[in-house]
Amino acid sequence: MEYVEDVLKNGFEQTTILQPDDYEGKVTATLIRKRGSSRATKAILCIHGFNDYFFQAVIADEFLKKGYHFYALDLRKYGRSILQNHRSNNVRSLWEYYEDIDRALEIIKEEGSQETVLYGHSTGGLIITLYASDRKEKALFDVLVCNSPFYDFNLSWIQKKTIIPLLSFLGRLKPDVVLPVGFSKFYGKSLHKNDFGEWDYNLLWKPHVAPSINAGWVNAIDEGHLKIAKGISVNTPILILHALISVYPLKWSEEMFRGDAILNIDDIIEKSKFIDSPSKDVIGFDNAIHDLVLSRKPAQDLVFKTIFEWLDIFFEDKSRVNLKQKAATL
Fold first, then answer.
1. How does pLDDT run across 202-252, given as a tens digit for each residue?
2. If DSSP states are collapsed to H, E and C, what string results for the chain?
């Protein structure tokens, strides 16, 4: 693969992954990397959420310090991968993203990493959970980490039973019908340094008010939610992380920094019960926001501490199992 300097600079590189054309024409994904020590054998691949792209260099900093190679993927029609022929975020099935993830994981293996953490935030957490269930035959990753996974719409029970099925049905018939997005602009304002936050990112790729969606997107997400609600299994350990509370401010408030303003954390906890795994942990964090790693300290520090302690246990256990298997063949 040929890499060029990424927009983040500071050692980040990117390469374009060409994919087959779809219903909008040309399709690409973008793999971003920052290589660690030449002795590193582990890597992480980060998958972003809806109305998002990779800019969270703090994740790379923390994983590089722990001896990992760092990779992130801007999925098709997001961030670095948006082309002129695209509606941003446009998808008709979450399966479309599997090709992007497949190729990214293959490249990571080709570049020498022996063990890979597959990490997803919000919609990315939903995607990697379904991906792990549907790709059991592929041994391209070793463990899942989900940061506030989007396992259900943040709506009332009656809206989930009436409005979503209708929009999903519309999405199957007329996937290009345009629908508004109901996310609050306050979440973006809590993140970006030009408003009340501390982070800098491209507001064209991640605007405070998400661009309109197609009905096909609603159907794709609904199909993913229904699949999890019916029960799925993954072959790898999974760590599911979330804020301790959800917040619903009607005007700007410091409350935005105390909880998840995008998802209902009760939905995350409840839907996690339907995921069968060899090892599963579901952990909440006080004073944490929707993207947990962008929370204010000390919540942010605790999130990373929890992730690395959990991964250390997993990789230590995996090493012991591998040694026992090797000894048994001698």
1. 999 999 998 899 999 999 999 999 999 999 999 999 999 999 999 998 899
2. CCCEECCCCCCCEEEEEEEEEECCEEEEEEEEEECCCCCCCEEEEEECCCCCCCCCHHHHHHHHHCCEEEEEEECCCCHHHCCCCCCCCCCCCCCHHHHHHHHHHHHHHHCCCCEEEEEEECHHHHHHHHHHHHCCCCCCCCEEEEECCCCCCCCCHHHHHHHHHHHHHHHHHCCCCEECCCCCCHHHHHHECCCCCCECCCCCCCCCCCCCEEHHHHHHHHHHHHHHHCCEECCCCEEEEEECCECCCCCCCHHHHCCECCCCHHHHHHHHCCEECCCEEEEEECCCCCCHHHCCCCHHHHHHHHHHHHHHHHHHHHHHHHHHHHHHHC
- Determine if residue 239 is left, alpha or beta; phi over 0 gives left, psi from -120 to 50 gives alpha, anything else beta: beta
Indicate the burial class of 2 (C-beta count within 10 angstroms; 0-12, 13-18, 19 or more): exposed
In the chain, what is the greatest distance between 2 CA atoms, to the nearest angstrom?
A: 67
Residue tagged 């290589």 (tokens): 35
The pair of structure tokens assigned to 85 is 């022929």
The structural architecture, per CATH, of the domain 4-153+225-329 is 3-Layer(aba) Sandwich (3.40)
CA 187, CA 197: separation in Å to the nearest integer? 10
Query: In this structure, how many other beta carbons lie within 10 angstroms of the beta carbon of residue 11?
Result: 14
Q: What is the pLDDT of residues 45-89, one digit of tens each?
A: 999 999 999 999 999 999 999 999 999 999 999 999 999 999 999
Between the two ends of the chain, the Cα-to-Cα distance in Å is 38
CA distances from 159 to 166, 291, 302, 305 (A): 10, 25, 35, 37
Length of the chain: 330
Read off the pTM.
0.96
Q: Where are the domains of the chain?
A: 4-153+225-329
Provide mean pLDDT across the span 121-127: 98
